[in-house]
Structure formats: C-alpha cells, structure tokens
Amino acid sequence: MAKYWLWVIITLSSSCSIKPLDTVPSAPTPYNALLQHLHYLSSANLRGRQVGTTGNKKAQNYIVQQLVTANVAPFAGSYLAPFSIKRAFNTTQASNVIGLIRGREFDDKYIVLSAHFDHIGARGSKIYSGADDNASGTAALLEFAKWLQREPLKHSVILLFTDAEEVNLNGAKFFIKDNTHLVNKIVLNINLDMIAGTKATKRLHYVSRKLKQVLSDETISRLQQTTSPIKIVKGFKSKGRRLSQVTSWQMASDHGAFYQQGIPFIYYGVGLHHHYHQPSDSYENINHEFFTLASHVILKQIRFIDENLYFNAQRYSER
C-alpha cells in the first residue's frame, strides 16, 4: 500500500486553476474501515442480501448503525423507507436506507449519492455474496458519509442506499416516486455499483449524461483530467467490442431511475466480469487495493464537482 499513501500525500499538496480538483478529505478514509464494511456485507451470514430476506434486513440494520455512529441525520425523519414489490403471486417487503447531510451553502439543492445493498441471495448451499455487486459501492458510501458529515459539501447530500436494485431498480424508482416534490431540486445523482472488480481489474469506468446542465465545459474537462494512481476511463469497452452494444449503461443501475427524470448523473463501476452474479463474487476475489484507490478518487471527484456546480436556469428548466 506504499503506492496508495504516496498518492494521498501528492494529492493533498496539489491544486488547479478553477476550484481545486485535488482537494481531498483532511483525514483520508481508513483502508481497514472500507474493507471491514465490505467484508461484513459480503459475509455468508447475510446469504447474499436478497430483497425480503433476513440477510437483507441485517444489511439494512448495519447501514443504519453506521449512519447513527457517523452522526448522519435520517432523511425525512427516518433512516428506513419501506416499500412493497407486488408480483403475480406474492408481495415482497423491501426498504431503502437514507441519510441526509445539509449543505453549508445550498440547503435546498441536493446531490444524491447512491449505492444498492441488495444482491441475488442464495441457491441451496451456493451463496451469491455480491462482494463487488454491490457491497463495494455500499461500503464506499458508508465511509463517504463519515467524511461528508465532518466536512459538509456546499450542497445538501442525500445518501441513498437502495434495496431491490436487482429487481428492476425498484428501490431507486420508489425513492423518486416517494419524493416527487424534490425532483427539481436534485442537481445530480452519483451512483456507485461494482467498484472493486477482480484481482485483474486495473480501470475504473464511468458513464455520465446531462452534465452540461450543471457543470461548465472547463469543469468537465478538468474532471476528466483527475490525477489518480488508477486509470479512469469514460465508457466501457471489452476486447475491442463496446459493452454498450449489449448493455444499456444509462439504465444499468440505480442512476437509470434518475436519468428517466432528466436528472444528470455520473455512474462509476468496473463493468461486467467473470465473477458477476456468480458465487465467486466474494470478498477474497475482489481487488482490495484497487477498491480502496477507486473509493478515494471518487470521493475526490465528488468534492470537486460540488465546488464547481453551477445552475444555468434555462438548461435546468429544460429537464
């Protein structure tokens, strides 16, 4: 991890011409804390966190406990936002977990940071632990919550841990439906889904839409030039073939629910890999160092984005 700490020292001392791109938390997110979250959420005890199961409920309780410990306030008076998934022959109970951190300047404008905590569960003795999908995004968001509570952003932050993402993005869709009064106040969604990868993972990918509604061309350009020890790539490619040919990445995870409302988004992930939706997507098989570095570079970009958001009234109203 020597490379990691050298990068932290370098980025702490860097600056740029608009608002500082390389501004990072004064106390870097602990390496062990990130992995501790990921280890618990992907443990056999939670049996794959399938919506409506005991393991899923344990994940909810863990997330709530971490938010309470970090002194993050509940959203709309409660950390839990329950909803039902109605099917032909049964109804499944689910619940998002949501925290709120008020902005220091723009209390009524919101950045929604999202990560789904559910996965596909167990099939007999086979447990689909979902370490990368998406214990990784959930673990990172839990650590972001601690830093953002200590050092609030200019804009208010909704920390949205969604349930039932694996069931047609139900958690994110319910959040939008349950908070229609806030849709026009949500400036941006930043979604984390699968940011740990495999032992061979070397690149963090991102997809974005409608950023020019809230970021200038210069800001977007500087954002794409982020200094990082890992490679950050726009879009998804695999062996010369665009994965977007077979995957609709703007609808591939919870950011899709925001995209449908015309809300700008950035989605971070590593793309599909051979452990995807397999029992082998385990804590042991993720890339621990890459996961930590990816978490830090995303956190740095969140800070930069928050400092440089702007509101073009005409563009914003065209949503």
TrEMBL record:
Q: Name one GO molecular function term.
A: metalloexopeptidase activity
Q: Where are the transmembrane segments?
A: none
What positions does the domain Peptidase M28 occupy? 96-299
Tell me the GO BP annotations in alphabetical order.
Answer: proteolysis
Q: Which InterPro entries match?
A: M28_fam, Peptidase_M28
Instruction: Write down what this protein is called.
Output: Peptidase family M28
Q: What is the lineage of its organism?
A: Bacteria, Pseudomonadati, Pseudomonadota, Gammaproteobacteria, Alteromonadales
